[in-house]
Amino acid sequence: MAQSCLKFLKYALIIFNFIFWLCGGIVLGLGIYLMMTSKYGSLLPSQPSLSVANTLIILGTIVMVVSFLGCLGSLKENKCLLITFFILLLILMMIEIAVSIFLLIHEERIDGFLLKEFEASLNKYTHSNTTQDTQDWDFIQRELKCCGVTGKDDWNGTVPLSCCMEELNCEKGKTYWKEGCYEKLKQWFEYNYLNVGIGVIVISIIQVLGMSFAMTLYCHISKSAVSFH
Q1: Whole-number Å distance between alpha carbons of 43 and 111
Q2: Residue 109's CB: how many other CB atoms inside 10 A?
Q3: Is 157 helix (H, G, I), strand (E, B) or coil?
Q4: Residue ranges of the chain with per-residue pLDDT less than 50
């Protein structure tokens, strides 16, 4: 009975890690694609490395590495790989908890920082020699149906077509989106707050289960080695 349970844990760990490895590969591929097309840069001028593409590449790489260690460690019943997998999951969980606490404590400061960064990013729009900054704002304004950071007045009279409700038939000042994009983004996050929370809880549960399975398998391998000797 005990052997059957351990085999179940082993193959469950292999299957789940393989699935997450594939998901990590998809995220990594998407990040590389966005970087190659140079369509979505960073909306944080003081932190240019924090772009959508870079974030996806980092997340995809981390998921693939951790999942690979867990999958290979379970398959080969390698104690070193299993304990490394356990430690990495533990570190990731501690980082997630620390980031969550930081965001809750400094919510107002982060809100002010993001508002200033958005304003600086919008200011770069009209002074940019490349299309990347303009594509960022055009995409956001079309998708969120908004204009500027707080409204169309942020553009100082040079409102782009992406602010128009109907770009092909845009009468100046009459068909611009009324709401600012920063407020729209906040509304989107508030609307999806519950879904984000559920996602975080599910990921945390999966991490705890992965750590538990890995440590159980590690202990079983250690006991088997002792019994053999």
Answers
A1: 14
A2: 9
A3: coil
A4: 129-131, 226-229
Contacts 24+ apart (CB under 8 A), 196-205: 200/96, 200/100, 203/96, 204/93, 204/96
Residues whose CB is less than 8 angstroms from the CB of residue 35 and which lie 6 or more positions away in sequence, other chains included: 51, 53, 54, 57
127: which 2 tokens?
């002074």
Closest CA to 218 of 13, 21, 16: 13
For residue 219, the model assigns a pLDDT of 86
**What are the tens digits of pLDDT across the range 10-64?**
888 888 899 889 988 998 998 888 777 655 555 666 566 667 778 888 999 999 9
Q: Specify whether the backbone of 146 is left (phi greater than 0), alpha (psi in -120 to 50) or beta.
A: beta
How far apart CA 213 and CA 16 sit, in angstroms, is 11
Outline where 38-177 has alpha helix (H). 52-76, 79-105, 107-125, 132-144
Nearest partner of 146 among 163, 131, 159, 133, judged by Cα: 163
Nearest C-alpha neighbor of 89 from the set 8, 227, 205: 205
